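Let us practice reading a record.
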Amino acid sequence: MASPSATDSPEKESTEVPEVTETRAAVLRLRAKNTAPGPYGVPSRALALALKELEPQLSGLFTARLEQDPLVSHLCREGPDLDEHQLGFRCGRSNIDVITRVRALAEETISRGGVVLAVSLDISNAFNTLPWSCIREALNYHRVPPYLRSTIGTYLEER
């Protein structure tokens, strides 16, 4: 019987930390959830197990898809009712810009002897409070790509 090679060493296997990718992190979040099956009837646990094996192929697929048509490309155009200060999910603007602006406003106000109050809103249940017909109408009005409208429509139908 041949002696084990250095790569077969149990010590090495137990101390190696696998690279954490965005895909792997998403799979770990799916695995932790004990939720009802998704729109295609596949339980999140089964999806997580399948994704574990398919990670290399899926990582490349996600990147290729985003390069073809970024998910936010429809938001790059000026909308009829988008405020100039709407920065999130718009090309060339980010949440860091918002934080920088808030910080500058706070510093300016405090330097003049004023008081600053910040309020944060959690909109995790926003879809539960808006009429779904209004959401669909707004998606059409803002020329959201059909595949995203379809995805959101499917989400709304299951509510």
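A brief commentary: The chain has a mean pLDDT of 71.
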